[in-house]
Structure formats: C-alpha cells, structure tokens
Amino acid sequence: MNSSLRQPEKVYGLDFSRKEIAAAISQNKILSLDLETSLVCNLRCVYCYASAGKPRHGELSTPEIINVINQAIAMGAKVISVIGGGEPLAHKDISAIIKYIGTKPVKKNLFTNGTLITGETAALLKNSGFAVIVKCNSRTPHIQDHLAGLKGSFEKIQKGMRHLFNAGYPSAKLPLGIETIICRQNIKELPSLWQWARERRIMPYFETITFQGRARNHHDLNVSSKELRVLFKTLLEIDEKKYNFTWHPHPPIAGLSCNRHFYNLVVTSNGYVRPCVGVNISIGNVRHDALKDIVSASDVLKSLRHLKGKIKGACRKCSYRDECYGCRGLAYHICGDYLAADPICWRNPRRII
C-alpha cells in the first residue's frame, strides 16, 4: 500500500479503534446504537429492508425512545444513529428527539431520504451537531424516482441537499454523506456518483443489498459478484488516483469496513433489540427488560461478538479476516446462518451470484 495515501473519512460508528472495540467486548458494553423511530415513510423504496410505509403496531412512545437513548449511553454508546426504519423526519416528535440527542456527549447520525429536509430542519440538525447521511441512489432523475418508488423524489432530495449545503454541510464538524444501494439500475453510473460526492467532500456510503423486505420481490436489482468486484476496484482506483485515499476492496460497503457486530445494537420502532438490520433476530424487547440485561443474556450477541473464531467457510480463511467479516445479514437471509461465509463476496468460491 502506498504510504502517501490515507484512509478516507468514516461514517460515525464505523470509526472505532481496535482497542475501543476490544474493551467494549470484554466489558459487555456497546459503542453505538441504531435507533428506529417509526416505520412511517413517504417513499416506497423498492429495496427497503423494513418494507416501510405505515407504522408498526405498538411503536415506542417518545418517552420510551428517550429512555432507550439514555440506557444506550449508560452502556457506553458513543454514537447514536437515528435510522428511522421508515423516514425519521416523518416522526411527529422528531424535532424533540433530535434536540434531546443533541444535548448528549455522543456523536450523532441521521439517516434520511432527504425529501423532508427544510431550511428549518437543516438548521436544527446543524445546531444539534448531527452528521447527516442522505439516501441518494442516482443522479439520473428517473432512476432515483424508480428506486424510491415515487415520482418526483429526485427533485425533493436535491432540494433537501441544498438546504443542508446552505446550513454549512459538509464541514469538519458537520459531516455529510450519501447512502447508495448498489443495484442493477444504477451500477453503471456509480463511479461518477462516487466522484460527484468526493468533489463536494461528501462521504460516499455505497453498500450491497440485503435480500429482505421489499428487495425479496425485486430480483431485478441483483448484480453479480464479478460486477461488484469490478465496481469496488474501480472506486478504489478513483480514490487512489484522484483523492489520495486508499482502502481494501471488499463487500458490503465500498471504502469502509463494517465491524458493528462487535459493539452495536439496533432497537426497532416497537422496541425489539437486534444485532443489526440485516441479522433481524430479536433478542429481547426494551419494554420487558433493560438493555444491559438483554445484551448480557443473548447467545446470539455472544457468538457475533466473538465472530472471528466462529465464522465459517471462505470468510474464516480470507486474508482480510482481521478487518472484514462480509455481510452477516446476507449470510443470514440467504444461507439461514449468520455465521456462514458472505454468499455474494467474489472471494467466496461458493458464492451464489
């Protein structure tokens, strides 16, 4: 690796050191929380893991959400990510939730489709210290609209982005990213979208699809392992030649390593606790037990937090095993085993596509 090259900026929650991760595992703590607020969403993205649109039955009240945040911080969480489940900005009390998290000494992320961002919202996010990651799958209007399931979504997203730019995003203290799902419809334009983001100091967060939710009914989204390999290597070449960044190419996220299973939790909008949105095995519910007790009692979490010694197949032997474990969500949904080798990684000789 060229010593003059450097690692790209990382999304909050993917930037913990090995020392921090090891300490969290040994002390049975967490470092980050992914918080769903509601399944309510104004879009119908064809790949949505949660099939979002209408609220779930029995969603958490705002006081219950606040309680979950407090429990997570007490357990060591240094990052709180509001991921919505649906669109977080559609939640009736989202301003109060954002303001509350803003008072806490943690890093904050908001994952949003961007269509509901106003000038007032952008100012609130800025003043509350939130990094913002906007879902942006294409710079081509009809492709973005198709993937979002709503005509006109492209223009609404661009308007939301302009409000963020006007508020001062991106900056060192106000990171801005775009979350992009790699699929058949957009794969040819992703190198140009990557450069569009880099030129504007926007973090590109390009990830593979997990075959759950609406994606199960949209096989037309699939790309082959070979196409993924070519794409990741192309993006790496762009970064090394144009932006002085380097990284190891492996799925599920281009330019980043997912280590969430060592330290992260997801709490769904109706209170269920899960390892991640992909490994959607419920290990408890915050309405019945304290978060720390759920973590302590979970055999699923124990196996994932000691994944290096339990992972199977090609992932166990891979030269990148110290920094990558593939996508556990894909392994779970395709193989029925969250410890199986990543079934779409090009380094897996038993890959399925």
Structure report:
The chain has about 350 residues and is of the alpha/beta class. It has a single domain, classed as Aldolase class I (TIM Barrel, Alpha-Beta Barrel), CATH 3.20.20. About 35% of the residues lie in helices and about 15% in strands. The chain contains twelve helices and nine strands. The chain has helices at about 20-25, 60-75, 95-100, 120-125, 140-150, 155-165, 190-200, 225-245, 290-295, 300-305, 315, 330-335, and strands at about 30-40, 80-85, 105-110, 130-135, 175-180, 205, 265, 270-275, 285. It has a nine-stranded mixed β-sheet. The protein is globular, with a radius of gyration of 19 Å. The mean pLDDT is about 95.
Cα shape: globular
Q: Please count the helical segments.
A: 12
Strand order of the largest sheet: 6-5-4-3-2-1-7-8-9
Instruction: Measure the end-to-end span.
Output: 30 Å
Instruction: Report the portion of residues in β strands.
Output: 5-15%
Return residue spans where pLDDT drops below 50 for at least 5 consecutive residues: none
Q: Roughly what percent helix?
A: 25-40%
Q: If classified by CATH, what would the architecture be?
A: Alpha-Beta Barrel
Sketch the major β-sheet: 9 strands, mixed
> Over the alpha carbons, how many angstroms does the gyration radius reach?
19 Å
**Structure classification:** alpha/beta
Order of helices and strands: HEHEHEHEHHEHEHEEEHHHH
CATH topology value = TIM Barrel
CATH homology-level superfamily: Aldolase class I
Q: Mean pLDDT across all residues, rounded?
A: 97
Extended strand count: 9
Number of domains: 1
Please give the CATH class: Alpha Beta
